[in-house]
Design goal:
single chain, binds flavin-adenine dinucleotide, alpha/beta, 9 helices, FAD/NAD(P)-binding domain, globular
Length: 447
C-alpha cells in the first residue's frame, strides 16, 4: 500500500498519544513472592480492579504482567466510556441496527442493566480513588451509516430507554450538525449516559490505588505454566515460581497458549488509532460541539472524539482486523476520518498505534472459571467500563466461595465456530474484506 508521507507531522510517533502523560512502566514492581493468596495474570483494568477489591477485603493479591504495567489494551484505548454491550456486533458481524430476537431479549436486558452498573462503577472508582483522568460525561452520538440504519437506531433508543434508562434519543439528518460537524451520517442516536476519559491516566490511578492498598506488583513477569488445583496452584513465570490458592486470568486480547481453553473461545482483533495535531480553535469547536464520543452503525465501525483540551482529534477504527504497521493503519484511518470530516484534509497526524481486543462469538463479555482458573474476558472492543467491573466481579466470586450474582457469570461461553480454531485467527483478513464489501454495498445502496 502506498503511504502518503504528507499526512505525517514532523514529530510523528508510532506509539499511543496517551503515553505522553502516563507511560506504562515498572513503578512499584517488586520480586515475585514465593506465595500469595490470589495471583492475577494481567495488569490491565481487569487485573488491577480485581486486585484492588481483594486487597480491600484483606486478601493478599499479586499482579503479574509479561509487559510493563498496563502496556496491553488498557493504556491504548480510545477512552470512550459506555454502558451497553454491542448487541448484534462481535464475530457475527451483524450491523448495529438489527432487531433483537424475543428469545434473547430477557437475557439481554439483564446483561444490559449490569452494563449500566459497570458504567457507574467507573465513576465510583474514579471518585473513591481520586483519579485525575479527565473524566467527562457528555454522551455519545451513534451515526447511521446508511439511510436504512436510522429506523433501527430509533428502535434501539426506544428499547434502551424502556429497559435500562440510558437517556437515548434519535437525531434526524437535518439536526445532526448539533452533535457532529459532518453530513456523512443519515441521522443518528444520542446516548446521554456515556462519557470519555484519558485511558492511561485512569490506568495509572488504578495502579497507584493497588500500591496504596498493599497489592504486590510484578512487571515483565510472564506466566509460562500453571499446574495444580484450587488452593494449591504452582505458577511458573519468567522470574521464578509462586504458589497461590486462587488464580485469575485477566489477559483479554493478549490471551495466549497459557490458557488454551480461553484462547480458543476468543478472537484477538487489532484496533487502531490516530491523533491529529492541534487544530485552529474555530475548526476544533465545530467538529463535536457537545463534547460527545462518536461511533457508528456499520459492521466495521469507527470510534472518535476530541482529546482533553478539545483541540485535537482522536480517530480510531478497525482499518484492518489483523495487525498492520502504524504507518499503514494511519493512512487508512486518515482516509476514513476525512471522509467524515472533509474539513480536516491537510491536517497532520502526530500519533498512530494499535492494540488487541478480544471478540467473542456472541459479542458478549464473559466471566467464570475454567480448569479451576477464574477469568474475565471478551470486551469486544468496549472494555473501559466493563473490564474493571468484571475484574471486581471475579474477585467477589472468589470472596464469596465461588458464588456470583453477576449475569455475565451465568451465560454459556460459546467457542469460535471455525473448525480446529486454536487462537490463530488466519481468517481475519478474509472476514475483514467481506465486511468491508458489505458495508460499502449498504452505503452505496443506502440500505
Ligand atoms: C486501540 C483500542 C481502542 C479501544 N477503545 C476503547 C474505547 O474507546 N472504549 C472502550 O470501552 N474500550 C476500548 N477498547 C477496549 C479496552 O481497552 C479493553 O477492553 C480493556 O483495556 C481490556 O482490559 P483488560 O485488563 O481486560 O486487558 P488488557 O489491558 O489488554 O491487559 C491484558 C494484560 O495481560 C498480559 N498478559 C497476557 N498474557 C500474559 C502472561 N502469560 N503472563 C503475564 N501477563 C500476561 C498482557 O501483557 C496485558 O498487559 C479499546 C482497545 C484498543 C486496543
Amino acid at each position: 500500500m502506498k503511504i502518503d508521507q504528507s499526512i505525517f507531522h514532523p514529530e510523528y510517533k508510532r506509539e499511543p498519544y496517551w503515553w505522553e502523560a502516563a507511560r506504562p512502566g515498572t513503578q512499584y514492581s517488586t520480586d515475585l513472592p514465593t506465595s500469595t493468596e490470589v495471583l492475577i495474570v494481567g495488569s490491565g483494568y481487569a487485573g488491577l480492579s480485581a486486585a484492588l477489591e481483594l486487597a480491600r477485603e484483606g486478601r493478599t493479591a499479586t499482579v503479574v504482567d509479561a509487559m510493563a504495567f498496563g502496556e496491553g489494551a488498557s493504556s491504548r484505548s480510545g477512552g470512550g466510556v459506555s454502558a451497553g454491550i454491542n448487541i448484534g456486533k462481535g464475530l457475527s458481524g451483524g450491523p448495529g441496527q438489527q432487531t433483537l430476537s424475543d428469545a434473547h431479549q430477557n437475557t439481554i436486558i439483564g446483561l444490559m442493566s449490569e452494563s449500566l452498573a459497570a458504567f457507574e462503577f467507573v465513576q465510583t472508582l474514579i471518585e473513591r480513588e481520586a483519579i485525575e483522568c479527565h473524566y467527562e460525561r457528555h454522551g455519545r452520538f451513534v451515526g447511521a451509516f446508511s439511510k436504512a440504519h436510522y429506523p433501527g437506531l430509533a428502535k434501539k433508543a426506544e428499547f434502551l430507554n424502556q429497559h435500562i434508562d440510558l437517556d437515548a434519543s434519535v437525531i434526524p439528518y437535518e439536526e445532526q450538525r448539533s452533535d457532529i460537524g459532518s453530513d456523512f451520517y443519515h441521522g443518528g442516536m444520542v446516548i446521554k449516559r456515556a462519557g470519555k476519559l484519558h485511558p492511561s491516566l485512569f490506568h495509572k490511578g488504578l495502579l497507584d490505588a493497588c500500591n496504596r492498598s498493599g497489592v504486590t506488583l510484578c512487571a515483565h513477569t510472564k506466566v509460562e505454566a500453571i499446574t495444580g488445583a484450587d488452593h494449591n496452584f504452582k505458577i511458573e513465570t519468567s522470574r521464578g515460581i509462586c504458589r497461590a490458592e486462587h488464580v485469575i486470568i485477566a489477559t483479554n486480547g493478549y490471551t495466549g497458549a497459557l490458557t488454551p481453553k480461553l484462547r480458543n473461545r476468543i478472537v484477538p482483533i487489532s484496533s487502531q488509532i490516530i491523533v491529529t495535531e492541534e487544530l485552529p480553535e474555530d475548526l476544533a469547536r465545530e467538529l463535536i460541539p457537545n463534547g460527545r464520543t462518536i461511533s457508528e452503525t456499520p459492521r466495521i465501525t469507527s470510534y472518535y472524539r476530541m482529546l482533553p483540551g478539545e483541540r485535537r482529534v482522536m480517530y480510531g477504527g478497525r482499518a484492518r482486523f489483523h495487525d498492520v504497521p502504524p504507518d499503514v493503519s494511519a493512512t487508512l484511518l486518515y482516509r476514513m476520518m476525512t471522509d467524515r470530516w472533509p474539513q480536516l484534509k491537510g491536517t497532520r497526524i502526530t500519533h498512530s498505534w494499535s492494540g488487541f481486543v478480544a471478540m467473542t462469538t456472541d459479542a458478549l463479555p464473559h466471566m467464570g472459571e475454567v480448569d479451576g482458573l477464574h477469568f474475565c474476558t471478551g470486551c469486544n472492543g468496549s472494555g473501559v467500563a466493563m473490564m474493571p467491573y468484571l475484574g471486581r466481579q471475579v474477585a467477589r466470586r472468589i470472596l464469596q466461595g465461588g458464588q456470583t450474582d453477576c449475569a455475565y457469570g451465568k451465560i454459556d461461553f460459546p467457542g469460535v465456530p471455525v473448525p480446529l480454531y486454536r487462537g490463530h485467527p488466519w481468517f481475519l483478513p478474509v472476514v475483514g474484506e467481506y465486511y468491508r464489501y458489505l458495508d460499502r454495498r449498504d452505503r452505496r445502496n443506502n440500505t
